[in-house]
Specification:
Blueprint: H1 6-11, H2 21-24, E1 37-39, E2 48-50, H3 56-59, H4 66-77, H5 80-92, H6 99-124, H7 128-135, H8 141-170, E3 183-186, E4 189-192, H9 194-198, H10 201-210, H11 225-242, H12 246-256, H13 259-272, H14 277-285, H15 295-309, H16 315-320, H17 329-379, H18 399-412, H19 417-420, H20 427-432, H21 438-449, H22 455-489, H23 493-508, H24 516-527, H25 529-560, H26 566-593, E5 597-602, E6 607-612, H27 615-629, H28 631-640, E7 651-652, E8 663-664, H29 669-675
Antiparallel strand pairs: 1-2, 3-4, 5-6, 7-8
Region (Disordered): 680-727
Membrane topology: Multi-pass membrane protein
Family: Belongs to the sodium:neurotransmitter symporter (SNF) (TC 2.A.22) family.
């Protein structure tokens, strides 16, 4: 027996020592368990049993290096939302003013909960199902809900990667196919496509050439074969990346996590050299302070924090479970959170620099078109030439000259000004035009790139970046599904992973119908947000209030070698749960006040129109939310009434060859107690693995509230009066 074990300490002390089996055997030397014999019977010559199971912690795969692990976490957390959702929210919610609520919520909710998920995954070394089963069996449904949410997100997220693949291959031509409207030839007649003429070339290409979208979610329109093939390619890429677990996905992360930063850096340099880039950046950083007090802004900022860090998905826990126990996950949490925020700001700078350039182009186009209208009115004597300032030259008309001329005409022709149909052509109006989500990447940004020199090169780089960003997030999402299932049910890794990809592809055909984009909106905006919020709240409650914040902090101190800041104690215990409860309430109220809907593209009008989901779609949306959260109450009820085993009648311990047992399964409490020579059952061992702190014989486990008198496992033992030689 090692000299620093508690049993050795007991021999030199009159105090009783309470020690879990995991603690007792944590310092045992590794042995060949396959050659060891277990004598269970009490009589001489009792039945012997060969035990062949190896310790799972010893067999668990591990990251090749700390860099590989960090890149995996960055690849999962930094995704497509950093490129298009964060800039959109900045534009919509007050520019630089939006950064204030986002930073506040990142500090009080994001980083503490990200640290919590990293810590429990690293400490327990299981996926989300195993982690929350260990922490609190009655809340074990959290892990199953996380898997379901990951499935929902993965289904539509890979469709977006498919869209990027489509645009990527379309970029290898000059001019870019979305740079001009198609021309329809009818004999000697050549007519521009009406839908394109009413909108724009990039908008037409997105809605008609890429999606071939229907007018509403109720009009299926059949499968879009081009996007079906792209979805198949996307799932094939993801399958090859994750089929071997972290052995394959870890290598992919070196490229998929780093390449987007190379592209962003190139775009930033190129964007800053564009005419009008400064206008876009200044517009972005000019704060609208009134937005900071808007509750809706804070709600959207909190939702973005959840999605940006991947909280509640299980991917963070899965990745950290492959770490060594002495890894400094506190540093990892701060580093990944900072890089995530830095990436969002960097992407926003790039987007607004490019959109500033686009706004100047569109503003100049507006000036030219309206100047032609004014010339027409002058030639037809609708307007008097005396209204035109003498210094104005229509051959070299500047935006300043047009603005001056516009104000004069508006003042003089006040009664009949609206009939002239003149636009003010203000740069601010162009910069204020909000383009959300996919529209930002596939419409606004692609349109700006058509004005770049060597536009195909920039287009190829941009969409290759989107593919890699999406791939990194999909690897983490798939880990959130496969890792807990494989850990819990011991299914074959490769077979299960391939099966998941095949299943997801066929279900994902829903999103490559002509109406598929509307289902993407349903899943992206509504089906995951509320379940994720509930999951994260319960994760916090399970650790802070059921397991116990003080005990968890002590576990972290022993694991990390230093005590985390007291700040985390108060965040986990009070601030974060309260903030998330308010967020959940606000989300439910928002759904009740504003019925869910989507932006539909109406072909005849060549314009978007906001439509509410029909009754059947609302029923589907509610069903998705219920399915995602249902495992939580179901597992709670089943374990509360002992209809589902929580594993409390199973004991696993390691031993030295020829001395002790390795595994005893399905023993009753009294049998286990007698076997370890204990007369008085003690408190439950920590649900965390080895090297748990010494609590003493009078300590109370926070998990006793589970209803089991002997705690979480029902197998605590008092090792008093047992000579070391007997072990």
């Amino acid at each position: 027996m090692p000299k620093n074990s508690k049993v050795t300490q007991r021999e030199h002390s009159n105090e009783h020592v309470t020690e879990s089996v995991a603690d007792l055997l944590a310092l045992e030397e590794p042995v060949d368990y396959k050659q060891s014999i277990l004598n269970v019977a009490g009589e001489a010559g009792g039945k012997q049993k060969v035990v062949e199971e190896e310790l799972d912690a010893e067999d668990r795969p591990a990251w090749n290096s700390k860099l590989q692990y960090i890149l995996a976490q960055i690849g999962f957390s930094v995704g497509l939302g950093n490129i298009w959702r964060f800039p959109y929210l900045c534009q919509k919610n007050g520019g630089g003013a939006y950064l204030v609520p986002y930073l506040v919520l990142l500090i009080i909710i994001g980083i503490p909960l990200f640290f919590l998920e990293l810590a429990v995954g690293q400490r327990i070394r299981r996926g989300s199902i195993g982690v929350w089963h260990y922490v609190c069996p009655r809340l074990g449904g959290i892990g199953f809900s996380s898997c379901i949410v990951c499935l929902f997100v993965g289904l539509y997220y890979n469709v977006i990667i498919g869209w990027s693949i489509f645009y990527f291959f379309k970029s290898f031509q000059y001019p870019l196919p979305w740079s001009e409207c198609p021309v329809i030839r009818n004999g000697t007649m050549a007519v521009v496509e009406a839908e394109c003429e009413k909108s724009s070339a990039t908008t037409y290409f997105w809605y008609r050439e890429a999606l071939d979208i229907s007018n509403s979610i109720s009009e299926s329109g059949g499968l879009n074969w081009k996007m079906t093939l792209c979805l198949l390619v996307a799932w094939s890429i993801v399958g090859m990346a994750v089929v071997k677990g972290i052995q394959s996905s870890g290598k992919v992360m070196y490229f998929s996590s780093l390449f987007p930063y190379v592209v962003l850096a190139c775009f930033l340099v190129r964007g800053l050299l564009l005419r009008g880039a400064v206008d876009g950046i200044l517009h972005m950083f000019t704060p609208k302070l009134d937005k900071m007090l808007d509750p809706q802004v804070w709600r959207e900022a909190a939702t973005q924090v959840f999605f940006a860090l991947g909280l509640g998905f299980g991917g963070v826990i899965a990745f950290s479970s492959y770490n060594k126990q002495d890894n400094n996950c506190h540093f990892d949490a701060a580093l990944v959170s900072f890089i995530n925020f830095f990436t969002s700001v960097l992407a926003t700078l790039v987007v607004f620099a490019v959109l500033g350039f686009k706004a100047n182009i569109m503003n100049e186009k507006c000036v030219v078109e309206n100047a032609e209208k004014i010339l027409g009115y002058l030639n037809s004597n609708v307007l008097n030439r005396a209204l035109i300032p003498p210094h104005v030259n229509f051959s070299h008309l500047t935006t300043k000259d047009y603005s001056e001329m516009y104000k004069v005409i508006r003042t003089v022709k006040e009664d009949h000004f609206s009939a002239l149909g003149l636009d003010p052509c203000l740069l601010e109006d162009e910069l204020d035009k909000s383009v959300q989500g996919t529209g930002l990447a596939f419409i606004a940004f692609t349109e700006a790139m058509t004005h770049f020199p060597a536009s195909p090169f920039w287009s190829v780089m941009f969409f290759l970046m989107l593919i890699n960003l999406g791939l990194g997030s999909m690897i983490g999402t798939m880990a959130g599904i496969t890792t807990p299932i494989i850990d819990t049910f011991k299914v074959p890794k490769e077979m299960f992973t391939v099966g998941c990809c095949v299943f997801a592809f066929f279900v994902g055909l829903l999103f490559v119908q002509r109406s598929g984009n509307y289902f993407v909106t349903m899943f992206d905006d509504y089906s995951a947000t509320l379940p994720l919020t509930v999951i994260v709240i319960l994760e916090n409650v399970a650790v802070a209030w059921i397991y116990g914040t003080k005990k968890f902090m002590q576990e972290l101190t022993e694991m990390l070698g230093f005590r985390p800041y007291r700040f985390y104690f108060y965040m986990w215990k009070f601030v974060s749960p309260l903030c998330m409860a308010v967020l959940t309430t606000a989300s439910i109220i928002q759904l009740g006040v504003t019925p869910p809907g989507y932006s539909a593209w109406i072909k005849e009008e060549a314009a978007e129109r906001y439509l509410y989901f029909p009754n059947w779609a609302m029923a589907l949306l509610i069903a998705l939310i219920v399915v995602a959260t249902l495992p939580i109450p179901v597992v709670f009820v089943l374990r509360h009434f002992h209809l589902l085993s929580d594993g409390s009648n199973t004991l696993s311990v390691s031993y030295k060859k020829g001395r002790m047992m390795k595994d005893i399964s399905n023993l009753e409490e009294n049998d286990e107690t007698r076997f370890i020579l204990s007369k008085v059952p003690s408190e439950a061992p920590s649900p965390m693995p080895t090297h748990r702190s010494y609590l003493g014989p009078g300590s109370t486990s926070p998990l006793e509230s589970s209803g089991n008198p002997n705690g979480r496992y029902g197998s605590g033992y008092l090792l008093a009066g047992t000579p070391e030689s007997e072990l």
